[in-house]
Design a protein that fits this description.
Blueprint: H1 3-8, E1 35-44, E2 49-61, E3 67-69, E4 72-79, E5 86-95, E6 97-102, E7 110-117, E8 120-121, E9 146-149, E10 158-165, H2 199-213, E11 218-222, H3 231-242, E12 251-254, H4 282-287, E13 295-299, E14 302-306, H5 324-336, E15 342-345, H6 352-356, H7 369-380, E16 385-390, E17 397-399, E18 408-411, E19 421-428, E20 431-438, H8 442-450, H9 459-462, H10 467-470, E21 471-475, H11 484-490, H12 524-549
Parallel strand pairs: 10-11, 11-12, 14-15, 15-16, 16-18
Antiparallel strand pairs: 1-2, 2-3, 2-6, 4-5, 4-7, 7-8, 7-9, 10-19, 13-14, 17-18, 19-20, 20-21
Helix pairs in contact: 2-3, 2-12
The chain binds fe (ii) ion.
Fe (ii) ion binds near residues 224, 256 and 258.
Length: about 550
């Protein structure tokens, strides 16, 4: 969408309220014990669960109703019967932003649980869309015990993992304007606390290290890496993605509507967009300097197809579209080996179910309806396609197509705001698991909580998604794929797939881009721990730098 235009027309952006909102500056004694709220079961795998909540002072709300943060301890009680809950997690370090990871769980087991701070039970975030705190309805009262059941693992042997992410919006300084009404500024946008690092910086710097630490061998970024595709913002987004690994082999990027060719000074140094005087394509310059902005790539035997769903000149607020040349390329790539396991990713969602459940959108928002239908027909004729990853809606949402019945269409919440994180796709010989992880650094948790009131307060209903939108397991024959470990040992991963499509696409070529091969980097796993350490070091630096210099959070 065209945030810049909306910002200009919005007189009532959230003024910031109180320097005490800053994470490290919460010092004032609360008049009453803190309340523990916004409890969420974020991640649920076959052997682990991540739950988060917030402690605050209800006597000190800000202009958006957020309570002043109050640090407290983090405790979770867990048991296989509600009458027998035992301490399963306790961290005495006081924090307003609670993140408890429960490990060592049994697959296929029902657990009862309670989260507490200062002995006070945490209450779930308000949501009427599925349960935010388990795999069953609350039912047991606001303070629990709540219930979740771990899934059985996908069949077979673990092969490799891919982090799915989107919507970094590097350079953006006001969040939540997607539903703001131009001219009246309601609901208002949300800005960072003065003195804190820019939120896009915080969230983007968490991405690479955390994806590595969770075991991702590859990372796919499905568009909107930048706010408005200025040269420095696109380069800056790439620098954060580079923290994960090498572009083109460890991570791949698709264009979003925000990354489209722009006019204006910030983009003027970049290459001219073909066929549009005055427009410059910084995204193309940085990520596809020599070829088309769509591609196929092979890793561990898996075919990855990256779409450019804003393959045109426009204002970004309309339907996504692929050029005829790009569509022909996709058709030819998928025709090569129809049974090869295939994951497609692109920015704009595809299914009618997605379109019908998207709130606050203009008339045109998802992929062009006719192209969406053609793409689903193509998937239906290509049995190897099993997953389509999209962004754009900034929500966790799993939809299905009535045409491509064997494909899961997974929308992933934004990196840059509540809930703030990524999906981890774990591939096994007999299926796959998808799990959403929130970013763990305290500054990221702080911004996640601060940006929670987006969508007029409906984010927990709409953006967070239900348990299945965040966590799912699918049985499917993927036995032809290779493991990351085996690929690292034998350097056996196939080189990138070249395009076969012919046709006119002046200036960029009709062939998809050629990217380096994947799967020969045996340092990936070792890099994970180092990257996580580097991430926390960076967070400390950001905190120090922002406080010490009094630097503005504004990137403008
Ligand atoms: Fe978008």
């Amino acid at each position: 969408m065209q945030w810049a235009a909306v910002v200009a027309a919005s007189p009532l952006l959230s003024a910031v309220d109180d320097p005490e909102r800053a994470y490290g500056l919460t010092r004032a004694a609360a008049a009453i014990p803190p309340v523990a709220i916004n409890l969420e079961l974020v991640t649920l795998t076959e052997t682990s669960a991540v739950v988060t909540w917030f402690t605050g002072d209800p006597t000190r709300p800000d202009s958006m109703g957020r309570f002043a943060p109050v640090p407290a301890d983090t405790e979770v009680l867990l048991g296989t019967s509600p009458a027998n809950l035992r301490p399963a997690f306790h961290d005495a370090t006081p924090t307003p932003y609670h993140y408890a990871e429960l490990t060592g769980l049994e697959p296929g087991q029902t657990y009862f649980w309670v989260a507490r701070s200062g002995g006070v039970p945490a209450v779930p975030t308000p949501s009427a869309y599925g349960s935010p705190i388990g795999t069953s309805a609350p039912g047991a009262g606001l303070s629990g015990p709540f219930v979740f059941t771990t899934p059985d693992p996908p069949p077979g042997r673990f092969l490799f993992a891919i982090a799915l992410c989107n919507d970094i919006h590097m350079g953006e300084t006001v969040a939540g304007l997607a539903t703001t009404q131009a001219g009246i500024g309601i609901p208002p946008g949300i800005m960072q606390v003065p003195g804190e690092p820019p939120y896009t910086e915080i969230m983007a710097s968490a991405l690479g290290p955390e994806a590595r630490a969770r075991g991702a061998n590859l990372l796919l970024a499905a568009g909107d890496v930048s706010s408005e595709a200025g040269s420095s913002d696109v380069h800056h987004a790439k620098a954060h993605l580079d923290a994960f690994g090498a572009y083109g082999s460890s991570y791949l990027v698709a264009r979003g509507n925000h990354d489209r060719p722009h006019t204006g000074a910030a983009a003027a140094v970049c290459r001219p967009a073909s066929g549009a005087a005055g427009y410059h394509d910084c995204f193309g310059d940085v990520f596809f300097p020599t070829g088309a902005t769509w591609f196929s790539h092979e890793a561990y035997g898996l075919r990855l197809v990256g779409l450019d769903t804003y393959d045109k000149i426009g204002n970004g607020g309309d339907n996504g579209v692929m050029s005829d040349a790009q569509f022909a390329f996709v058709r030819d790539v998928l025709a090569k080996d129809k049974d090869q396991p295939t994951l497609v990713f692109g920015h704009h969602p595809v299914t009618l179910e997605s379109d019908l459940t998207t709130v606050g959108k203009p008339l045109g928002f998802d992929l062009d309806p006719q192209q969406a239908m053609q793409l689903e027909q193509l998937y239906a004729a290509t049995p190897g396609v099993f997953l389509h990853h999209a962004g754009h809606t900034h929500r966790n949402k799993r939809t299905e197509s009535t045409t491509a019945k064997n494909v899961v269409f997974q929308e992933v919440a934004a990196v840059k705001e509540y809930p703030g994180g990524f999906h981890l796709l774990r591939v096994f010989t007999g299926g796959y698991a998808l799990n959403f992880y929130k970013f763990r650094p305290s500054l990221a948790q702080e911004w996640s909580e601060r940006s929670r009131p987006e969508y007029g307060g409906l984010s927990p209903f709409y953006v967070f998604g239900n348990t299945a939108d965040r966590n799912s397991v699918v049985a499917r024959d993927l036995s032809g794929l290779q493991s990351a470990a085996a690929a690292a040992n034998v350097s056996g991963a196939k080189a990138t797939t070249g395009a076969t499509a012919e046709g006119a696409n002046a200036g960029r070529g009709a062939r998809g881009s050629v990217l380096p091969e994947t799967g020969v980097d045996s340092r990936n796993e070792l890099a994970g721990a180092a990257a996580l350490a580097a991430g926390f070091a960076a967070e400390r630096w950001l905190r120090y730098a922002s406080r010490g210099s009094g630097a503005s959070v504004s990137n403008s």
